UniProtKB/TrEMBL annotation:
<dbReference type="InterPro" id="IPR036291">
    <property type="entry name" value="NAD(P)-bd_dom_sf"/>
</dbReference>
<dbReference type="GO" id="GO:0003978">
    <property type="term" value="F:UDP-glucose 4-epimerase activity"/>
</dbReference>
<dbReference type="GO" id="GO:0006012">
    <property type="term" value="P:galactose metabolic process"/>
</dbReference>
<dbReference type="InterPro" id="IPR016040">
    <property type="entry name" value="NAD(P)-bd_dom"/>
</dbReference>
<protein>
    <recommendedName>
        <fullName>UDP-glucose 4-epimerase</fullName>
        <ecNumber>5.1.3.2</ecNumber>
    </recommendedName>
</protein>
<comment type="similarity">
    <text>Belongs to the NAD(P)-dependent epimerase/dehydratase family.</text>
</comment>
<dbReference type="Pfam" id="PF16363">
    <property type="entry name" value="GDP_Man_Dehyd"/>
</dbReference>
<comment type="pathway">
    <text>Carbohydrate metabolism; galactose metabolism.</text>
</comment>
<keyword id="KW-0119">Carbohydrate metabolism</keyword>
<keyword id="KW-0520">NAD</keyword>
<feature type="domain" description="NAD(P)-binding">
    <location>
        <begin position="4"/>
        <end position="324"/>
    </location>
</feature>
<dbReference type="InterPro" id="IPR005886">
    <property type="entry name" value="UDP_G4E"/>
</dbReference>
<keyword id="KW-0413">Isomerase</keyword>
<comment type="subunit">
    <text>Homodimer.</text>
</comment>
<dbReference type="GO" id="GO:0005829">
    <property type="term" value="C:cytosol"/>
</dbReference>
């Protein structure tokens, strides 16, 4: 029984691969390295001591996906692969709609052809748009406010329609809040291209001296200190949530959405303080105007995931900051090797 992991070389995908391998699953991993590096693969093998099959494949090639299903007995899929930068999606919507939606349609087509109907989908809290109240529950109306979020919302609807047409489908829609942190080994972590858009990688690069200071986007929100509040979740807790969701889709049918967050909100300045405490590094910052599209407060009600998946986020904010700093300080330039000795199999075109 093999599990196919799309986007398995990415930040969240690689952490999920570690937990899945440590649990004993046989993995087939695909990635096109559009937002990841081959070096991650050898790090996953180093951490777990386990082998897995990897294919450098783009989901826009239906033939390549089909070839993987023909070569392996795939029982379920965890689908991470997709572009995820909100700002970029506003500038290049067609790139996002084509990559994220066509790639998913190709994947589902091939899954169906091979009789595979168990899927865990990497969705996002951005499908909620501007929440009418806090904390957010899964039955809130959806209203993504950017093309990236709309690709996630549209894919959720596509998967629901698939189940209506064929009751063999079993799908978990995992709505991530704000994943941060890194594996405790410090050997895998978040390695954004260019200047980070997200708070935690930006803070960690300020702490490492790669960036001068943090720009705090607004201090006039109705929050504890006026700065934005978000639900930060350790990436390892998030990865473990995928294991629980996989167990559930293998046993059931239907489509269910789950909020994967900590269930707690922390402000930007609280994150700065927590990171300074955990790293011993000062984080200079300056208050700037609000970032367009930001909401003031966003955090999850996680009762459905707690109860239905028997999952709860266990790691603390200190864990998140300490593990981020260990990754950052041990890998100041992120993943640096352009190629790696790991068997990266490229399917014939
Ligand atoms: C967090 C807080 C900012 C950077 C994004 C995506 C979402 C999801 C998670 C994929 C906010 C403030 C940030 C900075 C700052 N990704 N901030 N200075 O916007 O909640 O969610 O990541 O699914 O799709 O939208 O995360 O880390 O960008 O911002 O003050 O340099 O930090 O205003 O309050 P966000 P973020």
């Amino acid at each position: 029984m093999a599990i196919l992991i799309t986007g398995g070389a990415g930040y969240i995908g690689s952490h999920a691969c570690v937990e899945l391998l440590n649990t004993g699953y046989e993995l087939v991993v695909l990635d096109n390295f559009s937002n990841s590096k081959p070096e991650v693969l050898s790090r996953i093998k180093e951490i777990t001591g386990k082998n897995f099959t990897f294919y450098e494949v783009d989901l826009l090639s239906k033939e390549a996906i089909d070839s993987i299903f023909s070569r392996h007995d795939i029982n379920a899929v965890i689908h991470f692969a997709g572009y995820k930068a909100v700002g970029e999606s506003v500038c290049e919507p067609l790139k996002y709609y084509h990559n994220n939606i066509t790639g998913t349609l190709n994947l589902c087509d091939v899954m169906n052809k091979h009789g595979v109907h168990d899927l865990v989908f990497s969705s996002s809290a951005t499908v909620y748009g501007i929440p009418h109240q806090i904390p957010i529950t899964e039955d809130f109306p959806l209203g993504a406010t950017n093309p990236y979020g709309r690709t996630k919302q549209m894919i959720e609807e596509i998967l629901r329609d698939l189940y209506v047409s064929d009751k063999r489908w079993s799908v978990a829609l995992l709505r991530y809040f704000n994943p941060i942190g890194a594996h405790e080994s410090g050997r895998i972590g978040e390695d954004p291209n260019g200047i980070p858009n997200n708070l935690m990688p930006y803070i960690s690069q300020v702490a490492a001296g790669k960036l001068e200071q943090l720009n705090v986007f607004g201090d006039d929100y109705e929050t504890v200190d006026g700065t934005g509040v978000r639900d930060y979740i350790h990436v390892v807790d998030l990865a473990k949530g995928h294991l629980k969701a996989l167990e559930r889709v293998l046993l059931t049918t239907g489509v269910d959405a789950y909020n994967l967050g900590s269930g707690f909100g922390h402000s930007v300045l609280e994150m700065v303080d927590a990171f300074e405490q955990a790293s011993g590094q000062e984080i200079p910052y300056v208050i700037k105007d609000r970032r367009p599209g930001d909401v003031g407060i966003c955090f999850a009600d996680t009762q459905k995931a707690n109860q239905n998946l028997n999952w709860v986020a266990e790691k603390t904010l200190t864990d998140m900051c300490k593990d981020t700093w260990k990754w950052q300080s041990n890998n100041p330039a992120g993943y640096t090797k352009t190629q790696d000795h790991v068997t990266s199999i490229q399917l014939a075109p």
